[in-house]
C-alpha cells in the first residue's frame, strides 16, 4: 500500500476489502504492525479524504487498524465501515469504540450493517 499511496498524489477515496492480514516483512509502513517510528509514514502525507472498509468482522485487530488509520491519515474526513453480512457477530452490541472514534477524531466514522447505519446513538435507517 505505501507504494500505491506515494504514487497517487490525487487519491481522495480508498476502499479496503477487509483489514486482517498475516504480518510479514512486506507489510510496509501503512500497517500498524510495523514496529518503531516508521509506522504510518506513507499515510501522513496521503491526501485520502474518504476511507471505506468492507467485510469488517469486529475483531480487536481490525479496531486497532481503524484507530491507526484515524491517527495517521491527516486529511481523512469520512470513514465508512461495512460489516461482513455473513459474520455471526451480534451487531446490536456495537463496541463503544465507534462512539469514541467520533468523539476523539475529526473524521466522521460510520458503521453500516445490512442497510442500517450505526452512528453515535444507535442504528439509523439508510
TrEMBL record:
<dbReference type="InterPro" id="IPR006566">
    <property type="entry name" value="FBD"/>
</dbReference>
<dbReference type="InterPro" id="IPR055294">
    <property type="entry name" value="FBL60-like"/>
</dbReference>
<protein>
    <submittedName>
        <fullName>F-box protein At3g59000-like</fullName>
    </submittedName>
</protein>
<feature type="domain" description="FBD">
    <location>
        <begin position="41"/>
        <end position="112"/>
    </location>
</feature>
<dbReference type="Pfam" id="PF08387">
    <property type="entry name" value="FBD"/>
</dbReference>
Amino acid at each position: 500500500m505505501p507504494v500505491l499511496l506515494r504514487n497517487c498524489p490525487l487519491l481522495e477515496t480508498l476502499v479496503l476489502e477487509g483489514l486482517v492480514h498475516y504480518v510479514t516483512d512486506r507489510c510496509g509502513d501503512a500497517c500498524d504492525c510495523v514496529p518503531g517510528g516508521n509506522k504510518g509514514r506513507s499515510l501522513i502525507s496521503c491526501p485520502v479524504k474518504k476511507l471505506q472498509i468492507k467485510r469488517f468482522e469486529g475483531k480487536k485487530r481490525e479496531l486497532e487498524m481503524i484507530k491507526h488509520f484515524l491517527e495517521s491519515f491527516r486529511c481523512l474526513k469520512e470513514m465508512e465501515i461495512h460489516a461482513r453480512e455473513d459474520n455471526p457477530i451480534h451487531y446490536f452490541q456495537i463496541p463503544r469504540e465507534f462512539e469514541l472514534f467520533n468523539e476523539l477524531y475529526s473524521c466522521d466514522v460510520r458503521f453500516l450493517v445490512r442497510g442500517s447505519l450505526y452512528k453515535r446513538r444507535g442504528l439509523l435507517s439508510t
